[in-house]
């Protein structure tokens, strides 16, 4: 079983301490990260795949240090942003799905096989040659998720993946996350969705205020917020 470790991690931006001496290990299959805006939750998950590096302390993924082994960590940990427009880089759906796979130095046949499989899995075959900018918000988010899943990382981080979506697309994306074989770490405000997770971390003012199973953590979080 894989383990993500934070060892005395502090994160500072322009003299503002965003995370304070975080020590925690993550090994569960479904982990939720919640908290008020500015609580440090997004910074926490960005440290896992090296989008940010700790000011102090160490973050490791399966024994790989995010500073020393940055490239290997990024291969292990995929990241899905809140806004798919910040993630999709090429104009056509198939081109965007192929982009990351080319960076893995896969053969043309391997790339085609993975793209075909992912388009079928998420019912996107009809959009293979569509311009991304013409897709709906939900379709764009599915393309963004598909491009990460196609890379076959061991972990996938979702930073508020349903915030910009309508109810129908929100349900579709949450279903996709639930069905993943990979470990999923999800930042979300959708507490109903998170009830099915294995573990919930609640951040407050740069610290982990609550760390428990969903029934306990969410109940305490709601009590504190009310």
TrEMBL record:
It comes from the Bacteria. The keyword Membrane does not apply. Residues 4-222 form the ABC transporter domain. One of its GO terms (cellular component) is ATP-binding cassette (ABC) transporter complex. It holds the Pfam family ABC_tran. The keyword ATP-binding applies. GO terms for molecular function: ATP binding; ATP hydrolysis activity; ATPase-coupled transmembrane transporter activity. Transmembrane segments: none annotated. InterPro entries: AAA+_ATPase, ABC_transporter-like_ATP-bd, ABC_transporter-like_CS, ABC_transpr_CbiO/EcfA_su, ECF_ABC_transporter_ATP-bd, P-loop_NTPase. Keywords: ATP-binding, Nucleotide-binding, Transport. Belongs to the ABC transporter superfamily. This is ABC transporter domain-containing protein.
């Amino acid at each position: 079983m894989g383990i993500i470790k934070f060892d005395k991690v502090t994160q500072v931006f322009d003299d503002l301490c965003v995370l304070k001496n975080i020590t925690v290990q993550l090994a569960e299959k479904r982990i939720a990260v919640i908290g008020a805006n500015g609580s440090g939750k997004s910074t926490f998950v960005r440290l896992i795949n090296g989008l940010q590096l700790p000011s102090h302390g160490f973050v490791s993924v399966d024994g790989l240090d995010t500073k020393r082994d940055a490239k290997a960590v990024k291969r292990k940990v995929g990241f899905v942003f809140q806004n798919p427009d910040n993630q999709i880089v090429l104009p056509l759906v198939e081109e965007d799905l192929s982009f990351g796979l080319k960076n893995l130095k896969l053969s043309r046949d391997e790339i085609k096989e993975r793209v075909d499989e992912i388009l079928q899995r998420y019912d996107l075959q009809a959009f293979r040659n569509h311009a991304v900018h013409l897709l709906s918000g939900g379709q764009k988010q599915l393309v963004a998720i598909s491009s990460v899943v196609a890379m076959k990382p061991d972990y996938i981080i979702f930073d508020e993946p349903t915030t910009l979506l309508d109810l129908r697309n929100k349900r579709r994306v949450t279903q996709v996350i639930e069905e993943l074989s990979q470990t999923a770490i999800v930042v979300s405000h959708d507490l109903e969705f998170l009830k099915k997770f294995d573990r919930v971390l609640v951040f407050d003012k740069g610290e982990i205020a609550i760390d428990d199973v969903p029934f306990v953590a969410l109940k305490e979080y709601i009590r504190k917020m009310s």
